[in-house]
Amino acid sequence: MYGTDMGASAGFNDHQRREQKERIKERNGQFARYYATDDEIPFGDLLSSDKPVREPEYYVTGLALPKEILKKIYYDNVLKWFPGVEQDYRD
């Protein structure tokens, strides 16, 4: 199952929460691209001392996982661990 340990601290103000949300969306997009394609993807830490790093530290080649594996990561395992969630799922 896919997840992240990134989150917004209770001490964040509204601006910091919005910035963190954008960082999480960017990072999740990188991982989705890594799992689903065989692209060369710029990667590395997006933060250094809590400041955004815009230049990639290195490049990785995506895994190009088959659709059935991606479905297990993003959907089937969620159903296994959170029974009933399928009632709210929409294609």
Description:
- With 91 residues, the protein is of the alpha+beta class.
- It has one domain.
- Helix content is 42%, strand content 13%.
- The chain contains 2 helices and 4 strands; from the N terminus they run H-E-E-E-E-H.
- The strands form 2 sheets. A two-stranded antiparallel ribbon has the order 1-4. A two-stranded antiparallel ribbon has the order 2-3.
- The longest helix has 23 residues.
- The protein is flat and about 35 Å long.
- The protein starts with 13 loop residues before the first helix and ends in a 10-residue tail after the last helix.
- The model has no long low-confidence stretch (mean pLDDT 82).
In one word, what is the shape? flat
Portion in beta strands: 5-15%
State the helicity in percent bands: 40-55%
* Biggest sheet details: 2 strands, antiparallel
Which structural category fits the helices and strands? Answer: alpha+beta
Number of helices: 2
Which consecutive residue ranges, at least 5 long each, have pLDDT under 50?
Answer: none
Mean pLDDT: 82
Q: Helix-strand pattern, N to C?
A: HEEEEH
Compute the gyration radius: what is it? 16 Å
Q: How many domain modules?
A: 1
Strand order of the largest sheet: 1-4
For the termini, the CA-CA separation is 18 Å
- Work out the number of β strands: 4
